[in-house]
Amino acid sequence: MTFDSEQYYMMKNKKVLVDPPSGDKYGFPKLIPLDELWRIEDWLMDNGYPEKEIDDYIKRAFFDMLVDDRDVLARKLPFKEILEKKIYLTYPFKAGFIHVDRWEVLTAYIKAFDFKTGCELGVSEGETFFNLLDENEDLFMYGVDIWELQGDNKLETYQHENPLEKRKEIVFDKLQKYSSRVKIYEERTDEAHAHFEDESLDFIFIDADHTYESVKRDIELWAPKVQKEGMIFGHDLNWGDVARAVGEMFTNFYVNGDNVWSAVKTSLRN
Ligand SMILES: C[S@@+](CC[C@H](N)C(=O)[O-])C[C@H]1O[C@@H](n2cnc3c(N)ncnc32)[C@H](O)[C@@H]1O
């Protein structure tokens, strides 16, 4: 039996992440259990989301997404019905809609799926890398970055506060603190994949070279390294090149906050 990504997510957990606008102020995203009956407004308020924000949420998020069935939220929905209707409660969201950082999006998935081993392609100065390690105490992270300008890499011609050499230094200075939970490969992503056994990672986060060819190549080379029920994430879905590569590679993918895309491995096109 094959699942598409939203069915997979819901069925595996019987839960979906809910992340309303400004949710970070009130402790969101949170998991909503799908096998219980609720009305979304009641559930949000029971879980600390203020009533005054609800209208905004319903208007901006749900009604946008549930265009085919606007009355659906007025009723209490059992799990089965949600599955059949394929309703998304939070992910996918429109890019940029949720006010969360990429490591928060990843952490929500890591905790929901109990992921233990991940790899970030493109570490830069380690903002995502170290936040993931801080927020997930049992997580082992591999990181891959060449920290040198690559001919095919348009992104790194952009202005950045710190040059690549400095960013590398920042990462290596911090590594000591996490020494038992990290390993860095200072290589190109199309070389470093060779260090990994197939199906040895729970997830990868692709954020290196953002050209169409490279994103596609990273997915092709690295997806085999992810375990069967694992996930493939990446950054900057708002880049045309990235979106094209992701759309071509997967039958289904989610759009999360901070332009993070995510797909289950089973939704790779053959
Ligand atoms: C956008 S930054 C990564 C940001 C980081 N993932 C984060 O969330 O904070 C891209 C990084 O990818 C690295 N990079 C670009 N092309 C690469 C390649 N072909 N192989 C390895 N690293 C690459 C760059 O050196 C740069 O540090």
According to CATH, the fold-level topology of the largest domain is: Rossmann fold
Spell out the helices and strands N to C: HEEHHHHEHEHEHEHEHEE
Q: Averaged pLDDT, please?
A: 76
Instruction: Find the count of extended strands (DSSP E, 2+ residues).
Output: 9
Unique bound compounds: S-adenosylmethionine
CATH class of the largest domain: Alpha Beta
Helix content: 25-40%
Write the CATH homologous superfamily of the largest domain: Vaccinia Virus protein VP39
Number of domains: 2
H/I helix tally: 10
Low-confidence stretches: 1-11, 59-99
Query: What CATH architecture label of the largest domain applies?
Result: 3-Layer(aba) Sandwich
Structural class by SSE content? alpha/beta
Spatial strand order of the main sheet: 5-4-3-6-7-9-8
Strand content: 15-25%
What is the approximate shape? globular
Tell me the major beta sheet. 7 strands, mixed
Distance between the terminal alpha carbons, to the nearest Å?
16 Å
User: Compute the gyration radius: what is it?
Assistant: 19 Å
Write the layout of secondary structure elements.
Blueprint (H helix, E strand, L loop, with lengths): L4 H9 L1 E4 L11 E4 L6 H7 L4 H15 L13 H7 L16 H12 L3 E5 L5 H9 L4 E5 L19 H12 L6 E4 L3 H4 L8 E6 L5 H11 L3 E9 L5 H10 L4 E2 L5 E4 L6
Parallel strand pairs: 3-4, 3-6, 4-5, 6-7
Antiparallel strand pairs: 1-2, 7-9, 8-9
